[in-house]
Write a sequence for this structure.
């Protein structure tokens, strides 16, 4: 877990120590609330709609929604789904 903190090949131990100290200083900023809020401003949490299925903070421009049209399976579609899932999960549907 410490290897990703090392960025220098010439002075790896000094670099590791500096990164650990820097991380701890950032952790202690939480107790100085005014300073912490200036450095790390609070972000308003986005309100998701009820039909939201998936979003990612890495790709904010992409949002996947559930289908908006209701659909009722026919009897043959239902049988095909049961057969498919029984084959996948090795179940006996009889």
């Amino acid at each position: 877990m410490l290897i990703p903190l090392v960025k220098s090949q010439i002075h790896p131990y000094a670099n590791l120590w500096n990164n650990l100290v820097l991380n701890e200083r950032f952790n202690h900023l939480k107790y100085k609330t005014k300073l912490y809020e200036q450095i790390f401003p609070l972000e308003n949490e986005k309100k998701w709609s009820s039909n939201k299925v998936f979003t990612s903070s890495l790709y904010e421009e992409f949002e996947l929604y559930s289908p908006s049209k209701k659909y009722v399976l026919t009897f043959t579609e239902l049988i095909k789904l049961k057969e498919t899932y029984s084959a996948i999960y090795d179940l006996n549907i009889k």
Summary: The helical segments are 12-28, 33-39, 75-88. The mean pLDDT is 79. The first strand starts at residue 52 and ends at 55. Residues 48 and 63 are 10 Å apart (CA to CA).
